[in-house]
Amino acid sequence: MNSAKILSPGRLFLYVLLLLFALYYITPLYVMLSTSFKTLDEIRSGNLLSMPHEWSGAAWDKAWSSACTGVTCAGLQPFFWNSIKMAVPSVLISTFIGAVNGYVFAHWRFRASEAVFTALLVGCFIPFQVVILPMAGVLGKLGLANTTTGLVFVHVVYGIAFTTLFFRNYYISVPEELIKAARIDGAGFFLIFWKIILPISLPIFMVSIIWQFTQIWNDFLFGVVFAGGQSQPVTVGLNNLVNTSTGVKEYNVDMAAAIIAALPTLFVYMVAGRYFVRGLTAGAVKG
Amino acid sequence: MSSLSIRNARKVYPNGTEVLKGINIDIADGQFLILVGGSGSGKSTLLNMIAGLEDISSGEIAIGNRVVNKLPPKDRDIAMVFQSYALYPSMTVRENIAFGLGVKKVPKAEQEATVKRVAETLQITHLLDRRPAQLSGGQRQRVAMGRALARKPSLFLFDEPLSNLDAKLRVEMRAEIKLMHQRLGTTIVYVTHDQIEAMTLGDRIAVMKDGVVQQFGSPQEIYDNPLNMFVAGFIGSPSMNFLRGKLLAHGAGSAFALEHAGEATLLPLPSSHASLAAWHDKEVVLGIRPEYVTDTVSARRSQTPDGYQPTEVDCTVEMAEPTGPDTLVFSWFNGTRITCRTHPRAAAMPGQTMTLAFDLSKAVLFDPATEQRLT
Known about the structure:
By secondary structure, chain A is mainly alpha-helical. In chain A, 73% of the residues lie in helices and 0% in strands.
């Protein structure tokens, strides 16, 4: 192709535009990172975009273990572990239930399965705010109010609609004949799921895990409403940390804390991200 | 080893569509049954019902004198080969073949022996540690058959197993399936839409259309004596020619009369045909296979002992298709396009006139209204 070698004005414009967008997106992260390594003096006197003159990890240390969040001053650490304890089971349970649901809706249709599936789909469109009051009542009746278990329950219930949709759309592309062959071989519902369906589900598991982890880790509303003092997630901790002022506004600590709160989702994206797009489109092209 | 009998089997879906309208088929132990028909004929549904993958709405299916209506697939003593092969993608060939045995809790040593035996039979020993994605179409086909063989079933079910293969491989695998059947002598039910597969493989063919068995019989019976125009047109390649005309009294017997090139033309029927006096002076459809419309030299060579001679008519050739051993000539006769199988050297060029001999000794007559065979 000859035209690829010549940088036409149109191409040049496109690249410049893309570059600008890339800069636009990377700048906040850059500012956060550089600010978090600066000392307070340097922040006050220096330029927002300049690199730190002397690198200091003090802000990170403080954000993690000693910054004040309200009356206690133990940093984000306890909140971070709360979030882990809450997010990991929520993600795994909702993903697994979604996988079984999707398998049923794709390959073990029952009389009203289309209606049930449609009802589940509607669940994807229900805003968080709507369920807060009734959910608080349910949690209270179950004796799960203000506990991590309660928060896990909320996230699982809320996540099932999405995970079911993901898995159902993925499994619909698995040929029906595969299930028939296994049934003739004598395998039942769960054996087919374990031995035949699960081993080919890695991409969609990655999609579901990334999606659910991002949603649950970044959730603030459910965390602030349903979690008690001892089980509040990192998003609530970050909010408290930033809003607790002890005279001076410690931007470097705020930035470090914000990055700490965002690190796990970044990590999940980096580990599982290459499966993400592949998993989302797999069902569409396989036919 | 077992026989199969299907008695008045019907399939009705909850929304009221009747896919199978009372099927009756009986085959003996060791026979090769073909279910053939176009899409929507219900042939695959029937196979799934034999396999136990779909419920039987009413009627009975018995495998080896045991009614299996209520049995799950695994207890029916069957194995099935699918069109897409349906190999378990995450397992190696070895695991694919052994999967059913593992489910049945067959001891490991016995499983290995079975895999070895099956792999040797199908010559896939070198593929045992590969995954399905690393196999070619033909190899996948063999593995799918291996998986079925490993179950040592008394009834094999094949659901269009050759449709996904290229033409050459299809012919090879077709021969292998037939050889396998001759060697093992297991009863087979084989679904296909390909009438050549039906003719070459089957002991018994059930031609299906719209959920009804149109005709059930041996391949030769169905080829020579089709019961209606659908069967006549469906079986045989190229298709049977259908000509519309009138049946007249002719001497002691009958003759088929039609107009060709503006002239009344008479094709006398040989005396071997049944008396059709009831149909004289009525419209009928004459069915004649391409091999009985041929060049005069080939026709004269195959004269019947009772003195019947094919009628010779001049026709204009529209197109010729050489196939090698013979040439198919397409021509117009009585306003209908007809196909004739001629000797390659006798075939005329397009546009030329050629004398075609119509041999009616194997011709069949149909009622134009009901499309049923005249008797």
